[in-house]
């Protein structure tokens, strides 16, 4: 094994962790802070990936587009499109309580997947969208990966900062209030429907951005990528394991789960060759087992949501004022 | 914190284990959709590829007696896992070439973000998407299965030649069905035919009568079905026959299935024809069939001959390139271009001697002659089959 190979692999893992971080952060807005059980992450991932792909890809006979807009426009477009799709879905579905919302969103993701597969004039159907430009794609293998990693890292940082800011603002406290006690929040005059819709759209837009980053990294997007296992449930595992309601927990969960998911193939490869095919299923088993263990022994995740209000800025100011008064 | 340490330790030991694997061998990656939607198809395909590698090792090994080793990766038939597994194979296992992945979406993603940047040659046994032809791949992407374009187009031309000018098309909504149907439609209309109905259907429903009724409304009496004969295609054909929506039926290679004759009866299939790859006149296929049976495989399983050919071609290309990853793509194009002395499946020793003597070789694969064009594609040779007795019989070749 060469060192450069190891580096290439590490950089690749970091890029995927970055992309999945966006999906997990988006889910954290919806589930962690607002209590909305969205089991249709793959759908918003797909909307983002395809919107950005169609906006930036060169002309093709098999799908819509040929606009060849700059990649940045594609990424912003992905966020707008995913948010715009989330609006009517949220309008209809957010009136459901948690489990029903989960069922409805699974259905929505499936509808999006089938539309992508069936409406070939728009999405290229099973052929997908290809020749999507990748920023810094012309550099050599290692450098182009490093440059893309820097880009993904910067985006995750900005999104993380934006969410943290939003969550520690009054809006975030209100969302948690609605999540924990809907009746109390209603009694205080909060417009619960509208607030939930905001959180749903905000989260969906972040997921869409994750989808776009994925499509540009692979320079192609096909319906095969909208697999609920890898684009919905894996992200749930990441968030629950890391600690929902805590953005740092979400990021940690993504890193832990993806590294286990990816690197466990080396461990299972050590089994004798006659088990080589069965061994691949071990990985799926390991992830499932991990989730069971976490839910049993540490249901709040590795980094749980900070409890109480001791850390919030108002309380600190209040405490300062109090001590000053004394 | 403890957990993190334990995890890091686990990871280090994992990578350490991986690096301890035998160093002297020549490694190739064998990337297949082991888990995921094609889980039933993948194991026989991997077995047939391993057969090729076994033959190489039995007949003196590669590059002067080294052992050829296959490292199996799981693409799960989706781009996420495909790219992840390919990155590991290329960077950690340092494979000299990649056989697979099996699904078109993974092939596109893996080629774009791993193998082409890394300069590794990829050959897929079952990626049939026409998009693979147009990849900007510096000539490093090959396949041993014809693009869906070939069959769809040649079927369209042949039907027009037979005097069928107006058809309805029903296709399964996946990359196989829609790829074929799209190529068929473009070629059929370009040559003056009329598509009177064109619709996709989903897998596994109990009734397709409403789809069929709508298709027949266009007034065509011929229905073209791109589907699998042991799955949904059978249901569609049965219901179309029962309700008399159409009189003539044409199928793609997926429809040339014995299940159709068994279930519907040959006497009801007098107006049914199906296109399918025609075996070459050489005895390549028989050689492969025998060898594969002897290791306990079923040679009739789908894509196994393509998979065997992909692995054998990769070994030939590695031998010719002298093990240099950068030269493999050039060598791959050279070992199967229709010029030079013929090498049949299993004739590894002969091939090595010819290469050592500096002679050109031309691999005649189990799945066809496999002469690569500039895009790394192989042309298919197809024939139209009709039902005769209790089996399919060749009616005419497609052009």
UniProtKB/TrEMBL annotation, chain A:
Its membrane topology is listed as: Multi-pass membrane protein
Q: Where is this region: Disordered?
A: 305-326
UniProt feature, compositional bias: Basic and acidic residues: 317-326
Q: Where in the cell is it found?
A: Cell membrane
Which keywords accompany this UniProt record? Cell membrane, Membrane, Transmembrane, Transmembrane helix
- Fetch the Pfam families from UniProt: BPD_transp_2
Membrane-crossing residue ranges in chain numbering: 6-29, 36-55, 67-87, 99-116, 141-163, 199-219, 225-242
List the CDD domains hit by this protein, alphabetically.
TM_PBP1_LivM_like
Q: Tell me what this protein is called.
A: Branched-chain amino acid transport system permease protein
Automatic annotation (TrEMBL), chain B:
* Pfam families with a match to the protein in the record: ANF_receptor (PF01094)
Do you know which Gene3D superfamilies this protein is assigned to? 3.40.50.2300
SUPFAM superfamilies per the UniProt record, alphabetical? Periplasmic binding protein-like I
Carries keyword Membrane?
yes
Q: Which positions fall inside the Receptor ligand binding region domain?
A: 47-389
Alphabetically list the UniProt keywords.
Answer: Amino-acid transport, Membrane, Signal, Transmembrane, Transmembrane helix, Transport
Q: What is this protein called?
A: Amino acid/amide ABC transporter substrate-binding protein, HAAT family (TC 3.A.1.4.-)
Signal sequence segment: 1-24
Location of this chain's protein in the cell: Membrane
Organism source for this protein? Pseudovibrio ascidiaceicola
Q: Indicate whether Signal appears among the record's keywords.
A: yes
Its ancestry begins with: Bacteria, Pseudomonadati, Pseudomonadota, Alphaproteobacteria, Hyphomicrobiales
């Amino acid at each position: 094994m060469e060192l450069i190979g190891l580096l290439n692999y590490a950089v690749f893992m970091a890029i995927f962790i970055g992309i999945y971080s966006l999906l997990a952060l988006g889910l954290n807005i919806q589930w962690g802070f607002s209590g909305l059980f969205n089991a249709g992450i793959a759908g918003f991932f797909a909307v983002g990936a395809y919107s950005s792909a169609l906006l930036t890809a060169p002309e093709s006979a098999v799908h819509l587009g040929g606009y060849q807009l700059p990649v940045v426009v594609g990424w912003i477009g992905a966020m707008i499109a995913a948010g715009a799709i989330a609006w009517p879905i949220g309008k209809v579905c957010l009136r459901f309580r948690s489990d029903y919302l989960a069922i409805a969103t699974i259905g929505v993701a499936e509808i999006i997947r089938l539309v992508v597969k069936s409406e070939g004039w728009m999405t290229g159907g099973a052929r997908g969208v290809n020749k999507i430009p990748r920023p810094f794609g012309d550099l050599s293998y290692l450098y182009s990966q490093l440059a893309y990693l820097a880009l993904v890292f910067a985006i995750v940082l900005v999104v993380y900062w934006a969410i943290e800011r939003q969550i520690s603002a009054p809006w975030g406290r209100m969302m948690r209030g609605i999540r924990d006690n809907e009746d109390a929040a209603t009694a205080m005059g909060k417009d619960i429907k509208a607030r939930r819709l905001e959180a749903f759209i905000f989260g969906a837009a972040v997921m869409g951005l994750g989808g776009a980053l994925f499509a540009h990294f692979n320079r192609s997007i096909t319906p095969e990528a909208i697999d609920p296992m890898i684009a919905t449930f894996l992200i749930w595992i990441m968030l629950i394991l890391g600690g929902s309601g805590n953005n740092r927990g979400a990021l940690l969960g993504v890193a832990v789960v993806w590294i286990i998911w990816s690197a466990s193939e080396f461990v299972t490869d050590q089994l004798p060759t006659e088990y080589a095919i069965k061994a691949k299923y071990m990985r799926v088993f390991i992830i499932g087992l991990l989730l069971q263990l976490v839910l049993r022994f540490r249901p709040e995740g590795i980094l749980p949501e900070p409890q109480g209000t001791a850390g919030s800025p108002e309380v600190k100011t209040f405490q300062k004022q109090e001590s000053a008064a004394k | 914190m403890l957990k993190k340490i334990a995890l890091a330790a686990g990871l280090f030991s994992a990578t350490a284990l991986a690096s301890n694997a035998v160093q002297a061998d020549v490694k190739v990656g064998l990337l297949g959709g082991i888990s995921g939607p094609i889980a039933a198809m993948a194991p026989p395909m991997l077995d047939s590829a391993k057969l090729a590698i076994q033959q190489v090792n039995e007949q003196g090994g590669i590059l002067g007696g080294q052992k050829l080793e296959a490292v199996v990766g799981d693409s799960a038939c989706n781009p996420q896992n495909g790219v992840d597994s390919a990155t590991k194979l290329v960077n950690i296992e340092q494979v000299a070439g990649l056989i697979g992945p099996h699904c078109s979406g993974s092939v596109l993603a893996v080629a774009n973000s791993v193998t082409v940047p890394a300069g590794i040659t990829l050959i897929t046994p079952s990626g049939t998407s026409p998009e693979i032809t147009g990849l900007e791949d510096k000539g490093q992407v090959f396949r041993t299965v014809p693009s869906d374009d070939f069959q769809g187009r040649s079927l369209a031309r042949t039907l027009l030649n037979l005097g069928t000018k107006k058809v309805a098309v029903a296709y399964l909504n996946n990359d196989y069905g829609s790829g074929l149907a799209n190529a068929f439609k473009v070629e059929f209309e370009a040559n003056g035919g009329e598509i009177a109905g064109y619709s996709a259907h989903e897998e596994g429903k109990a009734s397709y009568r409403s789809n069929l009724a709508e298709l027949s409304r266009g007034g065509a009496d011929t229905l073209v079905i791109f589907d699998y004969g042991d799955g949904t295609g059978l249901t569609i054909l049965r219901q179309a026959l029962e309700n008399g929506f159409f009189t003539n039926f044409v199928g793609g290679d997926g429809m040339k299935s014995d299940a159709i004759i068994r279930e519907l009866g040959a006497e009801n299939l007098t107006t049914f024809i199906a296109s399918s790859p025609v075996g070459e006149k050489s005895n390549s296929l028989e050689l492969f069939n025998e060898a594969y049976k002897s290791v306990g495989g079923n040679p009739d399983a789908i894509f196994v001959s393509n998979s065997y050919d992909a692995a054998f071609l990769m070994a030939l290309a590695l031998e010719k390139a002298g093990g240099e990853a950068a030269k493999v793509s050039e060598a791959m194009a050279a070992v199967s271009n229709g010029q030079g002395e013929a090498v049949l499946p299993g004739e590894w020793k002969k091939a090595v001697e010819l290469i050592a003597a500096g002679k050109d070789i031309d691999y005649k694969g189990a799945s066809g002659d496999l002469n690569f064009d500039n895009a790394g594609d192989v042309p298919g040779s197809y024939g139209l089959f009709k039902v005769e007795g209790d089996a399919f019989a060749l009616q005419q070749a497609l052009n």
